[in-house]
Specification:
The structure is a single chain. Helix content is 44%, strand content 17%. It is built from 19 helices and 13 strands. It starts with a helix and ends with a helix. The protein is of the alpha/beta class. Strand 9 and strand 10 form a beta hairpin. The protein is globular and about 80 Å long. The chain has 3 domains: 254 residues, P-loop containing nucleotide triphosphate hydrolases (Rossmann fold); 85 residues, Arc Repressor Mutant, subunit A (Orthogonal Bundle), CATH 1.10.10; 86 residues, no CATH class.
Length: 459
């Protein structure tokens, strides 16, 4: 083999260094941790690698190993992680002062926070200082401000807060931490699942060459090229996954594809997190309202507390009342109003006042009374996009997808984008660009109707 061929072999070997390193880390983790999926193992391996390049990132994701029950492998995941990350700091039920000093004084510290449920669980006291540090510390350059007393002098002090953090605990985390974390929902091993028993005295020496390979590779990493993320990864999720996918692209081989698949799968799974009480209230009010246009406050409360598995009958020992309902809905811009129930005027809520919050905070549902007048009124801007320029052959399909007609009427044709020369058979007004007239078959008669008049005409 001549010199040119030897050089080519050396270059090829160097290019595969990252792949070999990632395969070694991935395999070492899999020996001791029973992951819920291959995607979780890929994410954990990439997260460990990212801790060796902390000076390269704008933000660092937290990785959270959570489970509903003990003995699910969460602590084991942290124990194995400790052997592979730089400057690990094990933390269990620590004080804010300890954590601040550790992060501020030990450059490049990797915080491994076990039993996080004792800090943020339902029976724990408020720990806003620790929460603030964990929230802010995901951004490079973040600091925690403190006042320090020297004798009679009060001085300010800024403690660096930027650090990689791995968490483990029961249940859920506060929403602010969940949104900054890769969520791995651990579970107990099934009878057929086996992993190697972990012994630090035995396996710490075995981890040393893996750690060395990580360090050597990290020193040779070129400038970061920020990756193109999958379309499913947006906003805060992009902050979480950008560094990990960047690493996968540098490593090459199968890792770019594996990282992107893991990102999409774990982000989708994270959306199944336990909703806040505010989101639960919006979802339950939507269920209670059904097709109704308004509800008296007392009736709404009665129906809410009557829902199966509803929390509204017991909030800290008391049922939800009028004041509590008003306070919780007010944060979404929803206020009660005087409504007519029969011959009486009472306090209550209108569907039109709730719909905007429903559409913004709840996932779309085909069963959410898509044909009601109020829903169609709020859909007006998109109605034109859905039906403009559609020929008669596809009008029925597209109008049905928009929730315009459902079982009410069959769209036969469109009389232009405005229904030129026609008036709505219900309200008598002409069509517009925003609200075109649809030529519908209703009870055997062909009628031109606005989208939001179809249901009214049916009634």
């Amino acid at each position: 083999m001549n010199n040119a061929e030897l050089d080519a072999v050396a270059v090829a070997s160097d290019q595969r260094q990252g792949e070999r390193m990632m395969a070694t880390v991935h395999k070492f983790l899999g020996r001791f941790v029973a992951y819920p999926s291959e995607h979780a193992q890929v994410a954990h391996a990439l997260w460990i690698v990212h801790t060796h390049l902390m000076d390269r990132w704008e933000s660092t994701p937290r990785i959270a190993f959570l489970s509903p029950e003990p003995a699910s492998g969460k602590t084991r995941a942290l124990e194995v992680t400790e052997l592979l990350v730089p400057n690990p700091v094990a933390a269990v039920n620590v004080s804010p002062a300890y954590l601040f000093r550790k992060v501020g004084c030990e450059e490049g510290a990797t915080i491994l926070f076990d039993e996080i449920d004792t800090i943020f669980g339902p029976k724990a006291k408020d720990n806003e200082e620790i929460r603030g540090l964990l929230n802010a510390g995901h951004r490079r350059g973040a600091v925690a401000g403190r006042c320090v007393v020297h004798g009679k002098t009060v001085m300010t002090e800024e403690i660096p807060a930027y650090a990689a953090v791995a968490l483990a605990g029961l249940g859920w985390l506060p929403d602010t931490l969940l949104s900054r974390s890769i969520i791995v929902r651990m579970r107990r091993r099934a009878p057929g699942e086996t992993v190697e028993p972990f012994r630090r005295r035995i396996h710490s020496p075995q981890a040393a060459p893996v750690y060395s390979a990580l360090e050597i590779w990290a020193r040779g990493v070129p400038d970061i090229v920020w990756p193109e993320l999958p379309p499913e990864i947006q906003d805060r999720d992009a902050d979480v996954w950008e560094s990990l996918i960047a690493i996968a692209d540098i490593v090459g081989g199968s890792w770019p594809e594996r990282a992107r698949k893991a990102a999409v799968a774990l982000v989708a799974a994270s959306k199944d997190a336990e909703p806040s009480l505010g989101i639960r209230l919006l979802a339950d009010t939507q269920t209670v309202f059904g097709d109704l246009e308004s509800l008296a406050t007392k009736s709404l409360l009665r129906e809410l507390t009557g829902l199966e598995e509803s929390p509204w009958g017991d909030l800290r020992g008391k049922p939800l009342d009028e004041r509590g309902l008003a306070r919780r809905l007010r944060q979404y811009g929803i206020k009660s109003a005087n409504i007519r129930i029969g011959d009486n005027i009472v306090k209550g809520y209108r569907r039109s006042d709730l719909f905007d919050a429903w559409s913004r905070y709840l996932p779309p549902s085909p069963s959410n009374s898509a044909t009601s007048a109020t829903v169609l009124e709020f859909q007006r801007p998109s109605v034109a996009d859905d039906v403009a320029g559609i020929g008669s052959a596809s009008a029925t399909e597209n109008a049905s997808k928009s929730g315009l007609v459902a079982a009410v009427a069959d769209v036969a044709d469109l009389a232009g984008s405005r229904g030129e020369g026609q008036a709505c058979a219900h309200c008598g007004k002409p069509g517009t660009d925003a609200i075109p007239l649809l030529l519908c078959s209703l009870a055997g008669d062909e009628l031109h109707l606005h989208a939001d008049c179809i249901e009214r005409k049916r009634r």
